[in-house]
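hey m, so remember when u said the C-alpha cells were messed up on ur end? i reran from scratch. heres the input so u can diff it against urs
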Amino acid sequence: MNQTRSKSLTGLFVLIFALFIVFLVFAFYTIRSLKTGSDEFESYMEDNKNAPIAVIEVTGPIMESKQTIKDLLSAEKDKSIKAIIVRVDSPGGAVGPTQEIYEEIRRIDTVKPVFASFGTIAASGGYYIGSACRKIYANSGTLTGSIGVIMQFMDLSKLYEFVKVSPTTIKAGHFKDVGDPSRALTAEEKELLSGMILGTHEQFRRDILAVRKDRIKGDFIAHTQGQIFSGEDAKKIGLVDELGGLWASGRAIHKDLDLKGKFGLRFIKHKKNLSFSDFLENVDESFSNIKDRVIASRMPTFMYAP
C-alpha cells in the first residue's frame, strides 16, 4: 500500500513539474514574440538614426535615475543631436532620483535644448522632471500636475492583536522605528514627518518656479495642492506651454530651432536578445516593481496616488 502511494505521489510531482516546464516554455515564447514585434518597431525608428532630435522616455514609477541620466548624457555628447525631448509617461516616484534627473536636465539645457512631451500621465515626480525643461508639450487629456508629496504608513496593531502576534522592536534612537506597522504613529512622530514633507513640497514648488515663474497664471500655491489637471487645464494656468502629442511637438521644435534636413525623431532604445535568463529577469523585475511600490509608500515620494 505504501509503495503504491509513494508511486502515486511521485507521478503527481512529475506531472506538476512537467506542467510547470510547459508553462515556462509557453511564457518564454509568448514574451519573445512580443519582443520581436517591439524590435521591429525599434528597427523602424533606426531609419531615423540621423534625426537631429533625440527622444528619451521616462516611463512608469521613478525609483532610480541611473538609466535616464545615462541616456541624457549620451544625447548631450552626440554632436549630431541638436535637441532632446524627454517623453514623460509617469505617475511620479522617489524624491532623490527625481531631483537628480531634474538637475541633469537643467544643466544639459544650458548646452543643448531640452523639451518635455507628456503622454498619458505626467504627475507628481513625472511633472517635476518635465518642469526642468525649457518648454512643456502635453496632450489635451494628459493627467498633469499632482504637485505634492506623500508618505503613507499602515497601523496593523489591531490585526496583530487578532492573530495574537506580539512584535518586538529593539532600537537605538528615539525615532528609529517611525512607521513601525505594529503601532500607530505618535503625535511627536506625525509632527516630525509633517515638517519633512512640507519642506520637500516647498523644494518641489521652488524648482518649478526656477524655470516657470513668469509663465504661471493665478495662485501658484492653490495650483500645487496635489490636484490633477487635464493637459488643457494645465495649459490655462501655465503648467504646460503647448498642446500636442510627441510627433506634433517634435515638428514644432524642428521648425522653431530651424533645424536642417528632414524631420525625424531618434529614440534612445536599449535592445537585447531575449534569453531564458532574461525571461526570469523580467519575472523578477515584475515582483521588484511591486516591492518598490510598497517601499515607496513609506518614504517621501512625488507619486500620484488616486
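this time it looks ok to me. Residues 197 and 220 are 18 Å apart (CA to CA). if urs says something different then somethings off w ur setup not the seq
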